[in-house]
Design the sequence.
């Protein structure tokens, strides 16, 4: 076990434990905060995978954007008197069975498949290459994503403020 | 066994994926369901980045991870707008009570 | 200045009107003032086209072609890779047409601003004008026949929209449909012609096709097919340029607004047919040219005889347009290529002027179009009268006008053709038509502007049109003077228009299929000018010289006679027109009713279609239904038998299965809870089952 491995297990445990809390705790606000830790954990995993830029984006977009958005969603859809906003659960037994089976199947697929590992050169930082690719090979997708975001922006605004008639 | 390999990342993502599915299936609050979806997207992203590192595919994997993040942001915005609309219509966001699809 | 600049400017000219159309159509309802944008755009397009024309004519003696490959058809059997190119060709013809189309379109826009004022679809009207201009410019600019066909149809559509602009009127709606359908008939021929060429040459590009014909590649190895291709493509021109027998749509098309008539049915769209024939001129064989000449001459004659008796000011002009188009087509048929195009340009100006002038009159008379109710308008509308008179002089072929020059050239061409080939009927018809034209045009002028007012109520309210309507008239009338085309008022041969701008191209067809006078003599007597552009044998040039003065004096004589007669009939009343009409009642009615062609078509084509339908219906009811009824009886008998079988055996089974499925359904419907999450659980189970089934681990 070297530092790399230790860090991996650390981040994996942070990720999985907080993700577990996210999906099990009844308090919505707690869930949101555990989700924060999950995102951090995943960001750490990205760093370990030599994807520094993705990790930064993960933190900025997920934590700074999506999570805040989700919190707003929680706040706006509940009559808030205190932080204790509860959510009901259902389907617990069939869901546990199904998800357990699924997890088993997936994990065994991952473990028993003979992956061909062929590590390439790992550059110090990925941001330069990503930037270059983004305006060369992936330019069209990049532009399309811009348009998609614009559409999402307009669409979200127009859906959210539609009045009841 | 403890030496970290590609499998470790894949297993991590598989478990994260399953937890996301569990969240989607069990939670009643629509916002919670969205959180489950975010977990699933993260799991997929881990796979992308992991294969990018271990597979020698260049930066394609990381690129797609980036695009997935962008899509996730768009999806979250739209989904929350829809949730707000549902809230306006039904005065709650418990999706098990919103079953107009039935009959 | 480079060629690419010219190409880019031409493309800009092409797409500017489309931009105007799109903008006005999309936002026109919200911002009614947008029509000003369309007017502005067309002005800009005109200025660019002016620049392009001068640049091309002064600095680029060679044709400019810019193209790109649109579609590549790979691995066609026997033929390998076929490229379909799109592109534009800028030659002298193109830039002159660009100028003509844009100028008239612009003037019509200005005119319409006043004329259409207060119409409830005012902005929409301008957007249609933009669409039309775009399509017309497309025809002018294209370098291949496929694009030409596409824009050809677009012109058809936009003219349909404009003719039927006041679609609340049933006559307007009918006229637009008639125009569209009649045009389709011609277009079928054109389409077949295009396909003949494409099948053999695997390209739509004009120059490539011509090049291959020149190298001796003949469609299906037979000269008759070349003739057929020429005539079939010419059919498109027959429809669009309103040639006999498909000319019937154009007079009806006068139901559209008058500026539209000026733009579409006088100057541009109908000229598209002539333009098409000039484009394919080099592949026409002698047989095809003869057909074209005869069709043109006959059209000119028919329309001229009809125009004499019409009483609607626009109908007279419409038939005169048909007649003049027949002239151009005839001119192409007899090989007087340059004069045909010359006449196309001059006719565009003075006929647009006449139509806009009639629009001005109609506007002043509160939408009265019957010339029997006009008269004496000279005093009330001096400017309209003056411009109308100049254009009338031009169309009648009076010296010092542009019409005299072009008409004279065409008449000389027909005369030379008659002498060289012995087809004397064509020059005879041509001279007759020249006289008739002078007659009916002066009849129109005299009845409208001279004499006493016949409808005093409307006369008292008549007034000169506003400046915005009169200015286009003045510009167009000015362009009907000879000086723009040649410094010599009695012969255009040495003017810049014919000397350096428009030259007859080389025929590419095999020598044995040409008229003998169009074959270049290989070893001697080739009257070559610079760039070797001249085509005809010395014999032809000499005959043209021989014909020149004869044609000029002949045309002067017949035009003078026509004008004189007209004055005697209608101005001085020496001869009573009504009396004469009564004496030759049959002929008069024949002309008044347009040779009964509409009735003929009703009786043959239209009712033929209806009768075929009725016949088919009878066949259907008696024969088919009889057979059906017979089999029905048989079926009834067998069905009784099978009915018994049905009731006991089949129904038993069916009822059982219904019971079964009902039972199953009742139980399984509980699965459909309407809850999304339940469905997700099902999906997860399904995935697990798939995973187990495929055993990837």
Sequence:
């Amino acid at each position: 076990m070297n530092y790399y491995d230790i860090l991996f297990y650390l981040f994996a445990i942070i990720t999985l434990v907080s993700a577990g809390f996210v999906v099990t705790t009844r308090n919505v606000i707690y869930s949101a905060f555990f989700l924060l830790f999950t995102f951090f954990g995943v960001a750490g995993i990205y760093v370990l995978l030599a994807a520094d830029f993705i990790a930064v984006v993960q933190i900025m977009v997920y934590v700074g954007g999506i999570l805040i958005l989700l919190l707003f969603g929680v706040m706006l859809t509940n009559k808030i008197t205190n932080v204790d906003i509860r959510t009901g659960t259902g389907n617990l037994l069939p869901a546990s069975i199904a998800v357990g089976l699924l997890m088993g199947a997936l994990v065994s697929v991952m473990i028993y498949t003979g992956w061909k590992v062929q590590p390439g050169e790992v550059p110090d930082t990925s941001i330069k290459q990503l930037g270059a690719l983004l305006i060369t090979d992936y330019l069209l997708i990049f532009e399309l994503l811009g348009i998609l975001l614009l559409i999402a922006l307009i669409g979200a605004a127009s859906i959210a403020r539609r009045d009841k008639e | 066994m403890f030496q970290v390999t590609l499998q470790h990342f894949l297993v991590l993502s598989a478990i994260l994926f399953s937890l996301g599915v569990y969240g989607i299936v069990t939670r009643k609050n629509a916002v919670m369901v969205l959180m489950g979806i975010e977990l699933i997207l993260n799991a997929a992203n881990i796979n992308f980045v992991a294969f990018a590192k271990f597979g020698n595919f260049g930066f394609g994997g990381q690129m797609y991870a980036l695009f997935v993040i962008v899509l996730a942001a768009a999806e979250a915005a739209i989904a929350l707008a829809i949730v707000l609309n549902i809230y306006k219509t039904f005065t709650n966001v418990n999706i098990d009570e919103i079953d107009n699809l039935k009959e | 200045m480079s060629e690419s600049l010219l190409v880019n400017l031409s493309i800009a000219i092409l797409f500017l009107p489309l931009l105007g159309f799109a903008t006005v159509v999309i936002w026109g309802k919200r911002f009614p003032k947008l029509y000003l944008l369309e007017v502005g755009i067309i002005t800009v397009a005109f200025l660019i086209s002016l620049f392009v024309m001068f640049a091309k004519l002064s600095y680029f003696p060679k044709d400019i072609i810019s193209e790109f490959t649109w579609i590549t058809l790979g691995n066609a059997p026997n033929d390998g890779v076929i490229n379909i190119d799109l592109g534009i060709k800028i030659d002298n013809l193109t830039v002159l047409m660009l100028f003509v189309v844009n100028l008239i379109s612009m003037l019509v826009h200005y005119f319409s601003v006043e004329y259409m004022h207060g119409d409830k679809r005012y902005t929409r009207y301008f957007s249609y004008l933009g669409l039309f201009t775009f399509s017309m410019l497309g025809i002018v600019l294209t370098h291949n026949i496929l694009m030409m066909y596409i824009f050809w149809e677009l012109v058809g559509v936009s003219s349909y929209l404009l003719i039927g602009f006041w679609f609340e009127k049933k006559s307007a709606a009918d006229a637009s449909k008639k125009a569209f359908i009649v045009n389709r008939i011609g277009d079928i021929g054109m389409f077949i012609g295009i396909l003949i060429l494409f099948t053999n040459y695997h390209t739509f590009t004009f120059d490539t096709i011509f090049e291959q014909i020149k190298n001796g590649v003949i469609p299906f190895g037979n000269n008759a097919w070349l003739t057929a291709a020429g005539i079939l493509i010419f059919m498109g021109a027959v429809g669009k340029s309103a040639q006999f027998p498909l000319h019937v749509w154009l007079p009806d098309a006068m139901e559209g607004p008058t500026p539209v008539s000026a733009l579409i049915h006088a100057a541009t769209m109908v000229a598209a047919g002539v333009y098409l024939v000039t484009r394919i001129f080099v592949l026409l064989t002698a047989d095809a040219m003869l057909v074209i000449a005869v069709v043109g001459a006959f059209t000119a004659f028919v329309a001229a005889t009809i125009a004499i008796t019409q009483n609607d000011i626009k109908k007279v002009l419409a038939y005169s347009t048909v007649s003049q188009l027949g002239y151009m087509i005839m001119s192409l048929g007899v090989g007087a290529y340059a004069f045909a195009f010359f006449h196309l340009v001059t006719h565009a100006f003075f006929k647009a002027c006449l139509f806009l002038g009639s629009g001005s009159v109609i506007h002043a008379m509160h939408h009265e179009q019957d010339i029997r109710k006009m008269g004496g308008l000279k005093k009330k509308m001096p400017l309209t009268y003056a411009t109308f008179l100049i254009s009338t002089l031009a169309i009648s072929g009076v010296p010092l006008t542009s019409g005299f020059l072009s008409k004279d050239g065409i008449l000389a061409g027909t005369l030379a053709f008659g002498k060289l080939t012995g087809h004397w009927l064509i020059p005879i018809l041509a001279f007759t038509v020249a006289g008739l034209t002078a007659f009916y045009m002066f009849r129109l002028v005299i009845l409208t502007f001279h004499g006493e007012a016949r409808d005093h109520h409307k006369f008292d309210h008549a007034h000169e049109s506003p400046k915005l309507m009169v200015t286009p008239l003045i510009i167009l009338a000015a362009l009907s003077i000879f000086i723009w085309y040649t410094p010599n008022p009695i012969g255009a041969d040495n003017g810049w228009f014919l000397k350096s701008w428009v030259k007859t191209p080389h025929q590419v067809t095999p020598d044995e299929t040409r008229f003998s006078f169009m074959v270049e003599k290989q070893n001697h007597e080739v009257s070559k000018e610079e760039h070797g552009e001249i085509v005809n044998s010395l014999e032809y040039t000499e005959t043209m010289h021989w014909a020149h003065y004869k044609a000029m004096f002949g045309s002067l004589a017949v035009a003078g006679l026509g004008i004189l007669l007209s004055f005697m009939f209608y101005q001085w009343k020496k001869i009573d027109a009504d009396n004469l009409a009564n004496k030759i009642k049959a002929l008069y009615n024949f002309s008044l009713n347009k040779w009964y062609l509409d009735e003929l078509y009703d009786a043959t084509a239209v009712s033929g279609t209806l009768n075929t339908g009725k016949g088919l219906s009878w066949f259907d009811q008696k024969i088919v239904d009889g057979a059906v009824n017979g089999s029905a009886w048989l079926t009834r008998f067998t069905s009784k038998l099978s009915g018994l079988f049905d009731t006991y055996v089949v129904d038993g089974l069916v009822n059982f299965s219904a019971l079964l499925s009902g039972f199953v359904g009742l139980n399984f419907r509980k699965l459909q809870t309407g809850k999304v999450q339940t469905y997700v659980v099902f999906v997860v189970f399904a995935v697990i089952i798939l995973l187990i089934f495929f055993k990837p681990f």
